[in-house]
Amino acid sequence: MSRTLVIDGHPDPDSLVASLARHYAQAHGDARILALRDLEFDPVLRRGYHAEQPLEPDLQEALDAIFAASHIVVATPVWWASIPALLKGFFDRILLPKVAYRYRPNGFPEGLLKGRTGRLIVTSDSPRWFLTLAGDSTVTHVRNQTMRFCGIRPVRTSRFTDVRHAGGERRAAWLERIAADARADTASTPRPPQRQPAAAPARHSVERTGIRGMQAS
């Protein structure tokens, strides 16, 4: 298994996000791309956390790849100050309580993906100043409230903004830049975790992690 997992959250294989993900993986040298558009799974968490929803084989394989990796990259566009439904559905289905995180007796969360580093690749048609003015919600959501919440630290960010006005020369420069980010990450990527967190079973199914009957919203 590769030390680095690059999660491509864009539905379009011809998108800038997909191209950035591919260039990152190629430059990194020890990376696997997980293109969510190629997976077969239901992105809707049908009953929330009130009932079991077994993982499809593609999701189980994706979760195994996450636990095997020591560096996790998420590539996404900014859509309506958020992320594509495909990526959000992936997070909902796979980052489950007692698998990706748990709550301590004192109520504080504990990320079960700790020991892994991360990078967030974000594209946006809006300029950087507008995203900052609007609260930078996508980066806050994915980097702070998803990746870091699950224990992935540090999480570095690569931003590519004002995409709709970017010509071929500028896009080529972006591909060189993401390749440079990948090479920098290669030097700092830790070894794969020696073992899985105690709370994560060998097969990370919903049923075996005790989600059935949880009173969650």
Fold and architecture overview:
This protein has 217 residues and is α/β, with parallel strands linked by helices. The chain is 34% helix and 17% strand. It contains 6 helices and 7 strands; from the N terminus they run E-H-E-H-E-H-E-E-E-H-H-E-H. The protein has helices at residues 16-28, 57-68, 85-94, 128-133, 137-147, 168-188; strands spanning 4-8, 31-35, 71-77, 101-103, 109-111, 117-123, 155-160. A 5-stranded parallel sheet has the order 2-1-3-6-7, with helices on both faces. A two-stranded antiparallel ribbon has the order 4-5. A hairpin with a 5-residue loop joins strand 4 and strand 5. Helix 1 packs parallel to helix 6 (168-188). The chain is globular, with a radius of gyration of 17 Å.
